[in-house]
Amino acid sequence: MNSFACSKFYRVIGDELRIARSKKGLSQMELFLETNISRETISRIECGSRRISVHHLYILCDYLDIPIEKLLKKGISNDN
Question: Cys-Cys crosslink for 12: which of 24, 27, 33, 78, Cβ 3.0 to 4.6 Å?
């Protein structure tokens, strides 16, 4: 995966996490309070400017009820 595709991958992952958070009616601050992932980190993940760690991915997907494999497939399918 080249750097452009890699950054697009993280933007897609971030977009999907933001959409799921919004559907649950949560602010970034509320998600921080529930997951202990800082609001700043959540913001950077959602805008795709930060590469998400496996640990954070697991926590966010679990809390937001997103199957990790579905999220990763979506990210990969959008890197073309």
Answer: 78
| CB-CB contact of 50 with 44 (8 Å) | yes
The structure's pTM equals 0.89
What does the alpha-carbon distance between residue 31 and residue 13 come to, in Å, rounded to a whole number? 16
Structural tokens at position 70: 């579905």
CB 13 within 8 Å of CB 79: no
Nearest to 68 by CA among 1, 23, 8, 20: 20
Please name the residue that has the structure tokens 């309070």. 33
Query: Which stretches of 1-80 are DSSP H helices?
Result: 3-23, 28-35, 39-47, 54-64, 68-77
Percent of the chain scoring above 70 in pLDDT = 92
Task: Look up residue 5 and give its amino acid.
Answer: A
How high is the pLDDT of residue 1?
A: 62
